## 1
Amino acid sequence: MKIIEEITEWDTEYAVPNHVYFVNDSRDKMFAYVAVGSVKVQEFKKPIKFSVSRRRFREVANTWGYTVDEQPAGQTWTVAGSKGAEYVVTELDGVKTCTCSGFKFRGNCRHITII
């Protein structure tokens, strides 16, 4: 899990608040957030989709002590990417998923085919 603070400078005539988000390692699912000016963690019952597109973030320390068990059920493998990054391939009920950005955008990648 990553804790990221939004630092986007919005080009709008109204103020857009930049919150702190608790997201998975691939930054496509959000588990909770802390609203700007608050210290209370607002948790979701189930993770929701999250997009970092056209936004800027920085990682921050987990001063809230919030944790989540994001280990998926099923069998998992760690696979090396072509540029040295490591990805996690998970198989649950015969369906394979990968934490790489290619799988995130296309729903398929070479990492799931080599398992």
Note: The first helix runs from residue 101 to 106.
## 2
Amino acid sequence: MTVDFSSMPDDTMTADGFDQAIIGVDSKGEQPVVKYDYNKCVAILVKDNNMSHESAMEWMDFNVVSANVGPGTPVFCYPDCEEDG
């Protein structure tokens, strides 16, 4: 999925290396943010970094999901989430 960033606020952030895991935009909070499929992000880590599934999940949780850097911080959708678009 491609997100039209021209319509997003200037402080919208993305998670580096996970463009193929974008599933839409979450607009339920103060401002719209990029929404990622957590499992697709883990799969990218496993493939691109030769990590085990467990190691990729631990790395994802500690380094990506827990990083709240302001209102434009992306959100990560877990299994059974709905894709936008």
Note: The first helix runs from residue 38 to 49.
## 3
Amino acid sequence: MPDGPVILNNTPLVALSVLGRLDFLRRLFGEVLIPQAVCDEFLAVEAESRRAILAAAPWICSVPLTEPRRALAYAGLDLGEAEVLALGEERSARLLVIDERKARRYAERMKFSVTGTLGLLLLGKKRGLIASITDEATRLQQAGLYLSLPLLAKAKEIAGE
């Protein structure tokens, strides 16, 4: 894997926050970056508690784009996703963590390594950080987060569950 940073989009950030597993990011990658638009999206709901969550996770660093106009190149994506891709370009990211299909397709065309929330959970299970993908996925679903059933089935299969 290249030496560049890991860059995270809002949905995986929310999911790990809901699970109380932001420590995954530190344990798996050290520091991770989020562009300002992702930080803004994350703080748009329950701002006070989420601001405290980020303050308690200093390994999650919000950074501005050097060239903000670069994000305009990604038609059809929300600003957070577009800034994840733009920051990935600017910083030669080794991994983008994005759940949304359209943004993942952009990232794959750009030759980025991409994973999502379920991929992080799989990596966490492989490294012994969680016991069960099924249990964590159930908690996410109970919290109202959408998980693709075919992707969840594949993740469970890979995890041997």
Note: The radius of gyration is 15 Å.
